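Quality-control log, excerpt.
Job 1 of 2 completed; input and output follow.
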Amino acid sequence: MEQFQVEIQVLQSLKHPNIIHIEDVFLSESKICMVTEYMGGGELFDYVVDRGTLSEVEASTIVRQITSAVAYLHARGIIHRDLKPENLMLTSKSRGASVKIIDFGLAKLLDADDKTASFLGTRGYLAPEMLQRQAYSMSVDMWALGIIVYVLLCGCLPFDDDGGKIANEKAARAKFGLRFPRWASGLSESAKDLLRNLLEVDSTNRFTAEQALAHPWVTGARTPNKYLKSPNYLRSIKQEKVSQKMNGRMPHANGNSVEVCNGNGPTISVRRQSR
């Protein structure tokens, strides 16, 4: 419950067009209810599954918004630690809808030069330094952003998502050697360059949010308007997600259960208070 209170405090302090806005918080004897703005477009994950891969221009527009929000967070000493397409939502189903980061349940306040060591997040999006059980910095968010960009462009995850411990950097480089699927042969060199800099095993050489935001592919200066032809492996992942849902309840990353009510109004997240 303490972590949920941190999530509320973090969200209440933020004001950015690409970060979910918290409308109100209600306290009762047994529950804390958080009301956020309504996001009618659903998860970015579902959008990509339904569309298949996107054009580079559309993906660039989405990534620009996410990166802007991450830069905003990092400038304020906030590390998200659970960036993934499921935690990115669209304001509407119309083309060109805004994308917003949600779910700050694993967020942490961190000074620019500080590190933390808690092992948490989502399999498939964990940075190499986390899998080596090393102390890590805000750069883990940039690794996760790289995974998101890859998913948007290639329609699949770039690496094995077993989440197992890695012994050292040599083993990490062997596991995370960046490769592109055969159907991504038409991917622009600008996009590949961005991915190489985001999915850099050495966190000290990995792009910061500001560097990513200035990259020509992200700004749109070198972004071709073409689609990639790829099989949609994400559909099987979605089917697995759906099979795990039980009565509208999903496990939260920190172990708490979350009820999410989506109607024609705001989204309401509910946590039961521990006694």
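Job 2 of 2 completed; input and output follow.
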Amino acid sequence: MPPKVQQKTKEQKLAAAMAGGKSKKKKWSKGKMREKVANKVLFDEEMYTNRLLTEIPKSKLITPSALVERLKINGSLARAALRELKEKGLIKPVSVHHSQIIYTRATAAAE
């Protein structure tokens, strides 16, 4: 039989608990600050005719986020512009999902 281990008294347990140093409190990080983007909320005539109606229908992958990156417009304006291009028949939807719609250029063979 193994030798009996002597039980610690309550005072000894309390002293052992108090002897352990307090750990430092975790500091909260400041968090990363994103730079504020100043995207346009309306098209000007030059951007609408030159960029939207000529450049965008020629690209293979057309999404609202791609328009936001390229034209520096906000998301709701990009979605409205894509709806208009679709109604004109310049682009066609590839994948339709409630959060993101993916378009591609409309080819003559598709019509």
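Post-run check on job 2. The CA atoms of residues 29 and 35 lie 18 Å apart.
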